[in-house]
Amino acid sequence: MNVPTKIAILLSAALLSTACNPILRTHGYVPTAELPQEVNPDTDTKSSVLARLGNPSVKSTFDEDIDDDVWYYITSVRQRYAYLRPQIEDRTITAIHFNPDGQVEKVAEYGLEDGVPVNYVDRTTPTRGRELSALEQIFGTIGRLPTDRLTGANSPTGGGGGAGQTGGR
């Protein structure tokens, strides 16, 4: 084999081997210096958590005066091969629960194995009558409209609907 053929084979092998490598993308909260799991329930408050970790990914939907005030820090890693649908490789959800005074009560961590798939119910509301095809909808009104209303031939005011008439002669 000559040198250009060897180089072409090596380049082809390198391109084929890189096509099979997954592309990893991180979504959501990306911890920098401190991890959300390092929050201490004995000493940390809302302001200290906010200063150290930044804004949470999601806050609980209840007001602050309700006992169930939770901040969620969510990190997700997706893996994608070429043209295939991305798959979630790893997910970490850190839930920080606060008491009504703003003190951290507990820190809970959930992973991908803790998730529960949700199946949506695909129900439709039945309607009365029958379904019309596209052609029936397009051509269904032909012959149904009264032509005397369109032309105004039988109306007492003529074709214009009384627009040009005055009230008293």
Automatic annotation (TrEMBL):
Residues 157-169 have a biased composition (Gly residues). PROSITE patterns: PROKAR_LIPOPROTEIN (PS51257). The keyword Plastid does not apply. Residues 28-106 form the Outer membrane protein assembly factor BamE domain. Residues 1-19 form the signal peptide. Residues 146-169 are annotated as: Disordered. Keywords: Membrane, Signal. GO terms for cellular component: outer membrane. This is Outer membrane protein assembly factor BamE. The lineage of its organism: Bacteria, Pseudomonadati, Pseudomonadota, Alphaproteobacteria, Maricaulales.
